[in-house]
Amino acid sequence: MNQQKLQALLKAGARLSGEQELGSLLQTILSCVMDLAGCDAGTLYLREGEALRFCILRNNTLNTYEGGDGRAPSLPPVPLKKENVCALAFLEDRTICIEDVYNSEVCDFSGPIRYDALTGYRTRSMLVVPMHGRGEVLGVLQLINALDEEGEVCAFSPGMAAVLESVASQAALAIQNVRYLAEIQELFRSFVRVMSTAIDARSPYNANHSRRMAENAGRFAAYLNAEARQNGGEPPFSPAHIEELVMSVWLHDVGKVTTPLEVMDKAERLLPAQRAAIAQRMQAIRLAGRIARLEGRITGEEEQQLAADTRAAEERIAAISRCGFVQDAELEWLGELCGRRWQDETGAEHPWLTAEEAAMLRIRKGTLSNDEREAMQQHVVMTDRLLSQIHFSAGLSHVRQWAAAHHELLNGKGYPRQLTAGEIPPEVRILTILDIFDALVADDRPYKPGMPVQKALGILKAMAEQEGALDPALTNAFIRSRCWQQEAAPGGADPTSAV
Question: What's the whole-model pTM score?
Answer without folding.
Answer: 0.69
